[in-house]
Amino acid sequence: MRAETKAQLPQLGRDRRSEARRLIDAMEHAKEVTEGHFSALGMLITDASLNADEPALAEVKDGLQWLHRNYLDTPALDGDQREHRGRILGLIDCAHWALQRLPSGLQLGLHPDGHAARFLAAVARRQGMSNQELAAVLGTDETEVSRVGRRLLSAGVVWKRKEWRHNAWDITPRGLQYVESAGLLKEPAPAASRTAHTDVASRRGVDDAPARSETSRRKDERGRSQG
């Protein structure tokens, strides 16, 4: 990586908003806007979006709009400047849509006692819950869990992955931000959640019992035969 490019990359230990302001200032005063500037901003927007960092995204969007308005919003541009204008407009769009995908922009407004809010809170308390476990927590069926899960997945507040033959649900940083800001985690886990976890553990214990018993029986038989 060239030294000039490396110097533009986001620096560890800085908050994203300050880093965004530093990068915009560097672009304003640079003799030439380089690939490093655009790479750093792209990485920053991606990181801020994944972590639901609204102040950083707003800083990027406002700063790039100011840069475009004051330096590039004119027809008298050469080839490189026209390319830079297009890339800056693209980054402005990325920051704008990332802001729209945040819980505040989505305006989820989940009812605390509704399936969606309880789904999200349950996954926040325990990552990797399956459709079956969530159905037990919510007191509904797996079809409803799938429907609610698709809604939350499209909002970017949960992730879905496969564990063997079952879905496993995890909360995203923006989902965690929402449950915390909405106060969904202030109360202890509901009784239904604790019961579901106990039932799952009990079923596993029952399922494992025959295997342990059979193993013990075989060991006893081998001991008797050797004696």
Structure description:
The protein starts with a helix and ends with a helix. Strands 1-2 form a two-stranded antiparallel ribbon. The longest helix is centred in the last third of the chain and has 36 residues. The N terminus is likely disordered. A hairpin with a 2-residue loop joins strand 1 and strand 2. Helix 8 crosses helix 11. The radius of gyration is 26 Å and the shape is elongated. The chain has 11 helices and 2 strands. With 227 residues, the chain is mainly α.
What are the salient characteristics of this protein?
disordered N terminus; 5% strand; two-stranded antiparallel sheet; single chain; 227 residues
Low-pLDDT ranges: 1-13, 188-219
Compute the CA-based radius of gyration. Answer: 26 Å
Roughly what percent helix?
55-70%
Strand order of the largest sheet: 1-2
What distance lies between the first and last C-alpha atoms, to the nearest angstrom?
Answer: 71 Å
Number of strands: 2
Shape: elongated
What summary fits the major beta sheet?
A: 2 strands, antiparallel
State the helix count.
11
Mind sketching the topology for me?
Layout: H1 3-6, H2 16-29, H3 35-50, H4 54-72, H5 79-100, H6 103-106, H7 115-125, H8 131-138, H9 142-154, E1 158-163, E2 166-171, H10 173-181, H11 191-226
Quick rundown:
By secondary structure, this protein is mostly helical. The protein has helices spanning 3-6, 16-29, 35-50, 54-72, 79-100, 103-106, 115-125, 131-138, 142-154, 173-181, 191-226; strands at residues 158-163, 166-171.
